[in-house]
Amino acid sequence: MVYRVNMSKKYRILIVEDEPDHLLAINLIFEGDEDIAVSPAGNTREADEALDKAKIDIILLDIALPGEDGMTFCRRTREREEYRNTPIIALTAYPDQIWRDKAIEAGCTDYVGKPFEPKTLIETVRKYLAG
User: Which pTM was predicted?
Assistant: First the structure.
């Protein structure tokens, strides 16, 4: 399935991931997309700073983060008016249904298990950018 997005707009993706190799890999997946700008964050403090700097269109969120976990961050982000409806995609190595349900209950829009195929991640992001 092909998802078309508005090519005249530069979409901003926030990647919240504490593992440098995973952060780099996700960044590389979207590096060639001219209509996507990536903002990396290694923890929720950095993610909050990115959310304050520029309007983010979609958030890719690791659930297992040091300090504040991804689900707590998601709940807190949903309290912000400007991010109440922003797609938040949970990324986690906990692929079972229990963790998927917990992520959705915390306010995540969707869930992608690790390891993931780049094509799956791209299609998921494009689906939400297409609205």
Answer: 0.90
